[in-house]
Design goal:
Oligomer: single chain
Strand content: 5-15%
Radius of gyration: 14 Å
CATH topology: Rossmann fold
Shape: globular
Strand order of the largest sheet: 2-1-3-4
CATH architecture: 3-Layer(aba) Sandwich
Helix content: 25-40%
Order of helices and strands: EHEHHEHEH
Bound molecules: 4-nitrophenyl phosphate
């Protein structure tokens, strides 16, 4: 079993969206029993909360239901448990590196590394912006998910 953890700040916008998009892709490609997916936040602000309604709506517009997901905080044990720990932005990446060890730090990756369809290196935080930010974010997440899946497949 390969394990992928998506990580953002609050675990209510970007990373639960990535979890839903990536899981959907795995189901489509009949790989859901080979790869486990989860998400977490580097902060504890929204632990136990469902995804932001705007993130739920953007995912629903693509036929993806993320309503059952609940926020949790990333922990040092995650770095041992997961094979890929995928950060949405540099701030998340730095927070993950701070709880990693010499053995686990190479698991921490920036999500946008997996696509060349965007010049961006980070998935922008949509929390304080307007609703269209969530559609932009899910576009980026879909592109990066395809690239991550491509890489993962070389290990399956
Ligand atoms: P996320 O977005 O990291 O994509 O889940 C945010 C959610 C909440 C906050 C910031 C970003 N916040 O400051 O509460």
């Amino acid at each position: 079993m390969h394990k992928v953890l998506f990580v953002c700040l609050g675990n209510i916008c970007r990373s639960p969206t990535a979890e839903g998009v990536f899981r959907n892709l795995l189901v489509d490609q009949q790989l859901a029993d080979r790869v486990e997916v989860d998400s977490a936040g580097t902060h504890a602000y929204h632990v136990g909360q469902p995804p932001d309604p705007r993130a739920q709506a953007a995912a629903a517009r693509r036929g993806i239901d993320i309503s059952a997901l609940r926020g949790r905080q990333a922990e040092a044990t995650d770095l041992h448990e997961f094979d890929y720990v995928v950060a949405m932005d540099r701030q998340n990446q730095e927070a993950l590196l701070a709880i990693s060890t010499a053995e686990t730090r190479n698991k921490v990756r920036l999500f946008m590394e997996f696509t060349d369809r965007y010049p961006d290196t980070e998935v922008p935080d949509p929390y304080y912006g307007g609703g269209s930010g969530f559609d932009q974010v899910i576009d980026m997440i879909e592109a990066a998910s395809l690239g991550l899946l491509q890489e993962l497949k070389t290990h399956l």
